[in-house]
Amino acid sequence: MKKILVGIITLYLSGCALWMADFDNNEYGLVNKVRTIAELKQCDEYSVKALYLNALELKNYTEYIPRNQATIDLASTLYTLVHELRLKQQPISPAYCELKLNIIAKSAEEIQRVVGSKPK
User: Containing domain of residue 94, as a range?
Assistant: First the structure.
């Protein structure tokens, strides 16, 4: 009985690796695109639109991958950050732009770490 209990606890504690979706090149690539565009620090209409389209594509892509809830939540949060920037009227103030893009770039970097650490 003790062995079964220890086995269940071990599975529970290491459950993330067992119940997590495998590494996905497309997910990683989309997060990388969002991060790269954000790091360019440009708030012109074209750059904001490209940022938004890639964040939306990431959110949509991750949405129905089984055992991928953590990435789904992270992608949705990133999409929300980008969507807030997109809703700002042009021209966007340089201070707001820089702060928002820093937040987006840091968030995307953290998501890259999560997605990159998935089992291959």
Answer: 22-116
